[in-house]
Amino acid sequence: MSDSHDEMYKEHLMELYKSQANYGRIENPTHEHTETNASCGDEITMQLLVSDGKIADVKFHGSGCVMSIVSSSLLSDKIKGMHISEAINLSKDDVLELLKINLNPARLKCVTLPLYAIKNSLK
Amino acid sequence: MEAKRQSKNAFGIAIMDNESAKKLKEDFPIFKNNPKLVYLDNGATTQKPRQVIEAIKEFYENFNANASRGLYGISEKSTEKYANARKIVADFIGAKSEEIILTKNTTDSLNSLAYVIENLIPKEKDEIVLTEMEHHSNLIPWQQLAKRKNWKLRFIKIKNDFSLDIGDAEEKINDKTAIVAFTHVSNALGTINPVKELVKLARENNALSVVDATQSVPHMKVDVKDLNCDFLVFSGHKMLGPTGIGVLYGKKELLEKMPPFSFGGGMIKNVSYENSEFADLPEKFESGTQNIADALALAEAVKYLEEIGIANVEKWEKELRNYLLQGLEKIDGIEIYNQKNSSGIVSMNLNGIHPHDVASMLDDYGIAVRAGHHCCMPLMKKLGINGTIRVSFYIYNTHEDIDQFVDAIKKIKEKFG
To answer: Which of B89, B169, B375, B412 is catalytic?
Structure first.
């Protein structure tokens, strides 16, 4: 029994999960990458629309656990309007700050899945 | 100079019921140290009764010495106890002592076998038949052997009801088949496979049969003579024993023909700088200092199970399974993958909810289950799912454990709305 689960499935995160904010597809993305976690079957695709070096729009689709979906929603918001040079340097600490929770190493993979999808799409 | 310890479990009556399961729980220190723990992950590993834990302590504190080497009292005792442990394990599955090779676990047993089994195979044979429901440990060693020998791997299909397609087995097992390796009870689905039928098919085609009994030996009567299989493997830690000890059973005449897979001390008769003559069975396959303490503890685990009676274990798990299925019946949106089976493994999913989320949330209620692909990635892919939630029982599980699980599932479903 770990205390972090109570935090993990806090109401606001569950609400965010149910709202599926930023879930969907961009018609003509300039950047796109799919990241998978074979051990749990999660698969997240991030689509970005970049114009003049800035991220104008972001959407994600795929399937995953609460943590990977919520992280995808929040990261999409975070990078909207950001310069790509800034977005490519985001770290796992930035993701954890967005979620405001502690995670065990096994679940860290879930929340960093969209992060790596973004970074790899910009490479 | 043996330390005094109770050899009897807390059980002491002939029939397993909810009261006796509760009483058995008292033998397991982990439940005293984690009073809220509801442990339903016995397919992964079982908890250990104090009798097993004490056996390890007793060895190290009272007669720790290398077996089969020292010419002094405690070494002789260690040797005798190690041989006796092997005998107890052999008797448990109806084998002869010399047919029991002690290994690290099932994976180790299967890998070791896959290194040398080709020496028993006639040249014209070049196919290995497995099933679609194998654990990675009964898949990858054979994959590697097939690659090494340029042999073909074939997989017996599973049907829509998650049972094995025997018609397909009859087609795939033929005169080209060198080895038929299959699980007795699927760790992911709980399916109980018709071992005798598969062994018979293998034998009719002059192929060797390898049974992965990891999920059967701890839970039901398994007799190698009755099954008539060539090889059978299992792990100690899934049957109340410690980690790091497992079994490779082989028919005597096959083990005699098969060369060793590991070389060094303890497995020889005579050595010169140029050549070595190997020991007789079973030492031929046990190089280096063996895991004496855990072998002794495994024997203690077997004794513990025998006191309860393996038929009682099987019956109680069936009862728990029915009780769980009744509890889940009233909840909508649950897919159970193996309704028809009678093993102590129930695999399920809550519609639209990731199994890892369910497992994490169950942990909030103190409930331990396994969620994910269960080391059966190709099977999950075939079923079109990313994993399942697996409940797996053992002797100390009670109706109350299941009530808590069912209540928690209801609450989790509410949370997802």
So the answer is: B375
